[in-house]
Amino acid sequence: MIQIYGAGIAGTFLYNLLLKNGYRASIFEVRKSPDCRCGWGIAYREAKELYSEIDIEIDDFILTKPEKVLVNGLELRNKGIAIFDKLRLLEELWRNIEFKKSDAEVIVDATGTKRAFLPKIAKDRLVPTLQFMERHEKDENIYIYFERHGYAWAFPLGEYWHIGAGSIFENKIPELIEKLRVKFGFEKKESACSCSARIRMLPLSKCRPFVHNNVVGVGEAIGCVSGAGEGNAPSLKCAKILYDCIENLGIYENRVLKELNWVEREQRFLDSVFRGIPAFHLLFKIIPNERKRLVEHSILDFLRVFI
Ligand SMILES: Cc1cc2nc3c(=O)[nH]c(=O)nc-3n(C[C@H](O)[C@H](O)[C@H](O)COP(=O)(O)OP(=O)(O)OC[C@H]3O[C@@H](n4cnc5c(N)ncnc54)[C@H](O)[C@@H]3O)c2cc1C
After folding, report:
1. pLDDT of the residue at 36
2. How far is C-alpha 113 from the geometric centre of its chain's CA atoms?
3. Residue 268 sits in a domain of what CATH number?
4. Domain count along the chain
5. How far apart are the C-alpha atoms of 167 and 185, rounded to whole Å?
6. For the chain, which terminus, N or C, has the lower number of CB atoms within 10 Å?
7. Model confidence, pTM
8. Cα–ligand 1 centroid distance for 8 (angstroms)
């Protein structure tokens, strides 16, 4: 028996994959309804392939595939980012779940930033964010205002927009959002909802152990978040790796570090930026990978924004 705690993107995917393939598993969640905080951008191709393994057609949940990503003064072609209705997808998955706790040989910690079951991470870095949902009449692109300590974003959701920002300096978040508003013309509107959250921004290797006694972590609980704050596709991928290793947890840590090495690399770059000595050599691998997965850009584009 496998007991999963946390029914976010990683926990629900793993649960369905296990059941579909004949494992005995149960899942428990502390919330009464899925977390609707904005986090609805996803690497389309990866999501499509992974969700098909649990018979979910991601196209049924896609809100829009923006044509461009505008970052400060740059206009880039979006190749792979889709905006999906994460809330509706999780609601649909939750509808078929009877949440419960069972006696189990294996406990899965899929509790995201809480990491409620694995040992705490020394010098954990949980970056604060603030977000709003507002109506705007704008071209359906992704708008980013970037500074070295964080960035503000505007993501189209159809009728609404997610507007928000995250920064290692909490007091700079309102300023980042204001700069995004001015730069791209998103005047302050009445907000349909607003909330704050945290996101784990650490190299994967610093989130070890991934396995401790009979507890194994998955998704953001073990740091599956890219340097740009992308945690949806990495958490799905991580859940797939855990499924593959469920009979042999001894190989899990190495497989995650190997198959999500691009996440490690991006976080290492960010770490170096936060420490004031940017490891620019890492960009030679980071940018081609981003170009392949998400957005058409070059090292020069990156440096223009960064410097
Ligand atoms: C503001 C913001 C914007 C983001 N935007 C994007 C984006 O556009 N694209 C992207 O790819 N990523 C984005 N992310 C990151 C992404 O949302 C996360 O990395 C991803 O949701 C992690 O999935 P998870 O399943 O590991 O954890 P979560 O989605 O956090 O799920 C964890 C679940 O565990 C539950 N839980 C907590 N404690 C317990 C407990 N003790 N017992 C049982 N259940 C528990 C929680 O209630 C939650 O439902 C964003 C994050 C933030 C904060």
Report:
1. 77
2. 11
3. 3.50.50.60
4. 1
5. 21
6. C
7. 0.97
8. 6
